[in-house]
Amino acid sequence: MVATSSIIMNEAVLVTKAIQYITNELTEGLQSHRLPEVLAKFNLAERFCSTITGKSNVDIFGSLGKILVIGVPACKVKDIRGIFKSFGLVDRLECYLDYPSIQGYNFDRLRNNSKYSLIIVGPMPHSTQGTGDYSSVIARMEDSDEFPTVVRATANGTLKITKSNLKQILQNALDCGSLAA
Questions:
Q1: Which distant-in-sequence residues (6+ apart) come within 8 Å of 50 by Cβ?
Q2: Distance between CA atoms of residues 57 and 70, nearest Å
Q3: pLDDT per position as a tens digit, 75-120
C-alpha cells in the first residue's frame, strides 16, 4: 500500500511541475507574441488555432511561418538568400526556382498548411500540378482562402522575380504586419 501511495505522490509532483513548465512557456509565448509557435511546440496548434486567431489553421503561424518563393528568378539564388538574410528571414526561406522542380511541385500540399505565411510567385510552367479548373495554379491559389497569402513578383507588368521586387514584397509584408522578422 505504501508503494502505491508513493507512486501516486510522485506522479502528482510530476504533473504539478509539468503544468508549471507549460504555463511558463505559454505565458512567455504570449508576452513575446510567439504563442502559435509555443502551441506548435506542444502539438497544440491545430487544436487551439481558431480560438487564438479567429481564422482557419492557415494562419496559425501568422507572420512567423515559412516564405515560399516559387518561379524562375531573373537574379541569382545567392542574391535571393542575401535579400532574405538582410531582412532576418533566411531561415524561413523555401525556394523552387527551376522549371522541373516547379512542374513537379504538389501545390495541394499548401492548402490549409499552417507552416507558410507567404508565397511569392514568379514565372512558372502552365502545366503544374494542382491547377484544378483554373487557368493556372497562381489563379487557383489567389482565388482560394485555403492557401496562404500569394504575392505576384512582377516587373513591367509581367511575372518576374527580381532583387528589387523581392525587397519591396518583403518590406510591404513586414510593414503591414503579415510578416514578422
A1: 56, 57
A2: 22
A3: 999 999 999 999 999 999 999 999 999 989 998 899 888 789 999 9
